[in-house]
Amino acid sequence: LNADIAKVTGKTIGTVSGLEYSYTHASKTLIISKTSGAFDPADVAKVVEAIQLKNTDIASQLGTRVATITYTDTNGNESEPATASLSVALYRGFVINGEVAGDQSGFSVSSAGDVNGDGLDDLIVGAYGANPNGINSGKAYIIFGKTDTNAIDLAKLGGDSKYAIDYLGDKNANTLTGTSSDEIFVAGAGNDTLTGNGGMDVFNAGLGSDDIIINASNITALEQTGTGNRARVDGGGGTDTLKLEGADLTLDLTKISDRRIQDIEVIDITGSGDNILKLNLDDLLHASTSTNILKVLGDSDDKVNAAGFSDSTIDKTVDGITYDVYTHSDANTNADVELWVQQEIVMF
């Protein structure tokens, strides 16, 4: 071992409590005592895992170590030396290398939630000294969480775990308009409007009541399967609306993974012509984490197919819009689930 540690008393190390340990750097001797219970040489492994090694290169710190163990029992009898093979993996996580020297990558870091919906937390990493649009105009990256320890190089964009954020909002009401390319939108706390304009886009609308506008290309991307597809819509907090842009579109939620569209409370299929929405009970339940009511806006040219839902004969009017309220046949377990469909829309 090559370490710089202090004596620790009364700490719980791994699953072992009541341990004391001290370390002499010159002799590389680790002394462990246990205040209660029988001593198990396996305790050494847990102590080694708890040590933060310093001033050595990473390569020398990882891998397998062999520790020579002796211990003294309560009668003062010293054991015969024994060895234990220990797997030491003290440095976990991964390194993020900046794109350009002096761009101050990592000066600001914040949580991005789970932008790509893979179940791992993601990060926003800021580089205020970057110069993409003039001196010190700044740049932000989305770092997708991952389980391996390979370094991330921000200069090599396009890999699975790092992307530059194309449109970054703030606390105000922002209008973020994309192109037909694959892009990432991360909005702030305002009531924002995010327009994809096509591509394998990622929308993270944040707080506020936001509008997320998608077209046929965005829908196609959302329907695609496979690990390479990052398309996702996350409305975040507030009452958020997913809007269709265009005509003759079909948004079939039954073809889209439940993780790809989340925290959406309203779907507006009006567009510029005849559009269709298809969904089932699971789609509605996964649409929002804050409510089991999904509202659908549209006109007489639009249609909704909602498998298993039937008209409750109850009407609701909110903000001047009258809805027919549909409930699901599985009323015993989902009595609070309601689909509100604007009255002009055709059900089929």
Write up what this structure looks like.
With 348 residues, the protein is mostly beta strands. The protein has four helices and 29 strands. It folds into three domains: 8-88, no CATH class; 93-165, no CATH class; 166-347, no CATH class. 31% of the residues are buried. Strand 1 (8-13) and strand 2 (16-24) form a beta hairpin. The protein is extended, with a radius of gyration of 28 Å.
Topology of helices and strands:
Elements: E1 8-13, E2 16-24, E3 29-34, H1 43-50, H2 58-61, E4 63-69, E5 82-88, E6 96-97, E7 105-113, E8 122-127, E9 139-143, E10 152-153, E11 162-164, E12 167-168, E13 175-177, E14 184-186, E15 193-195, E16 202-204, E17 211-214, H3 216-223, E18 232-234, E19 241-244, E20 250-252, E21 261-262, E22 266-268, E23 276-279, H4 281-287, E24 293-297, E25 303-306, E26 309-318, E27 321-328, E28 338-342, E29 346-347
Parallel strand pairs: 6-10, 12-14, 13-15, 14-16, 15-17, 16-18, 17-19, 18-21, 19-22, 20-23, 22-24, 23-25, 24-28, 25-29
Antiparallel strand pairs: 1-2, 2-3, 4-5, 7-8, 8-9, 9-11, 26-27, 27-28
